Amino acid sequence: MSVLGIDQITYAADDLAVCRTFFQDWGLVLKSEATDQLVFECLNGCKVVVAALDKPGLPAGMEEGPTLREVVWGVESDADLARYAAAIARDPGFVDGEADGARRIGCIDPNGLAVRLQVSRKHAVEVDCGAMNTWNAKPRINQAAPVYDHATPIEVGHVVFFVSDVKATSAFYSDRFGFVASDSYPNRGAFMRCAPEGGHHDLFLLQLPSGKRGLNHVAFTVRDIHEVFGGGLHFSRKGWETQLGPGRHPVSSAYFWYFKNPAGGLIEYYADEDQLTAEWQPREFEPGPTVFAEWAVDGGLDGHTRRQKNAEGPKGAFLTEKK
Q1: Which residue ranges in the chain fall short of pLDDT 50?
Q2: β-pairing, 189-193 with 255-260?
Q3: Name one Pfam family in it (predicted).
Q4: Which of 236, 244, 225 is nearest to 292 (CA)?
Q5: Fewest CB within a 10 Å sphere: which of 84, 173, 215, 284?
Q6: Contact status, residue 226 vs residue 276, Cβ threshold 8 Å
Q7: Which of 26, 6, 139, 20 is nearest to 73 (CA)?
Q8: H or E element: which one contains 229?
Q9: Residue 233 belongs to what H/E stretch?
Q10: How many Å apart are CA 24 and CA 30, to the nearest integer?
Q11: 164: three-class secondary structure by DSSP
């Protein structure tokens, strides 16, 4: 029994019109629209809901203003759902009811976030990915690597929150749902995955000296490094602002590109994270710039010039041509 991953997230935002354009430019499909709510879908059926801040029935927020209000994790079966319901029945805000025609259970985690579980509605997808030729293995033969003119996110891969008590919050996810530690910043940050075998992290909890609670970012999985770049360039051409990237994380090995999100926090394209098993031994890191990013482009790349923001564009000659 283990949680399979993120099935749905719900933002509360103050400008649905802007969010409608933002998430469609991001590469999500708009599935339904109402005056107080938008529902988008990733490639594998993972849903992204953007509700109006004053929509009745929304869970309370961890912070004021636009932010993430709810994370719905998927499980495999009704039997799993029943076991998890028993595990959280005495936790604050426990709910056991119906949502979108199916049973959904949940509670409030120690950081004030609404956590829900349901039998997963995501579906398997087969996508073509760019194989990487290395010195030892060259699987891409007689074939050019792909170039993407935009991104089509496969799913919400992980969420990252600022927490007031990283030990209490990480213990909650471990004790109630069986999350496993991947790596950590001792007493500061916890990288956790849903099950012993899986991607480096589905959840990252970060405790600031101020004790601030809230959303840091939501990360969307794309096919490969080329889609990180192609998606980021497209999103930049659409006029959305980069926070940091493209770049590469040393801790998870993933390539990333972060943008500012009108629905709250940051939003990330990422690919090529480490895959772990039960044999993995968690590591400890001291937080710092070189631990967060092996390398990164400050301000992003311009979608038109393909160069760092505010850099001089090409003049038509070959880049290696000497004057």
Answers
A1: 318-320
A2: unpaired
A3: Glyoxalase
A4: 244
A5: 284
A6: no
A7: 6
A8: helix 225-237
A9: helix 225-237
A10: 7
A11: coil
Burial of 232 (0-12, 13-18, 19+ CB in 10 A): buried
Length of the chain: 323
Q: What angle separates helix 166-177 from helix 78-88, to the nearest 10 degrees?
A: 140
Q: Could you tell me the two tokens for 214?
A: 């809230």
Residue 77, exposed/middle/buried by CB under 10 A (0-12, 13-18, 19+)? exposed
Q: CB-based burial of residue 46 (10 Å sphere; 0-12 exposed, 13-18 middle, 19+ buried)?
A: buried
Angle between helices 16-26 and 225-237 (to 10 degrees): 140
Pairing mode, strands 67-75 and 189-193:
unpaired
What is the Cα–Cα distance from 289 to 82, expressed in whole angstroms?
A: 43
Reported as type and span, the H/E element at residue 227 is helix 225-237
Q: What is the model's pTM?
A: 0.95
Q: Which residues contact 61 (CB under 8 A, 6 or more apart)?
A: 12, 67, 69, 112
H-run or E-run covering 20: helix 16-26
Give me the domains of the chain, ranges plus CATH numbers: 5-123+146-296 (3.10.180.10)
Encoded amino acid at 127, one letter? V
Three-state DSSP class for residue 97: strand
Q: So what's the pLDDT on residue 319? A: 46
User: Which long-range contacts (C-beta less than 8 Å, at least 24 apart) are formed by 190-193?
Assistant: 190/166, 191/251, 191/252, 193/276
* Residue type (1 letter), 53: L
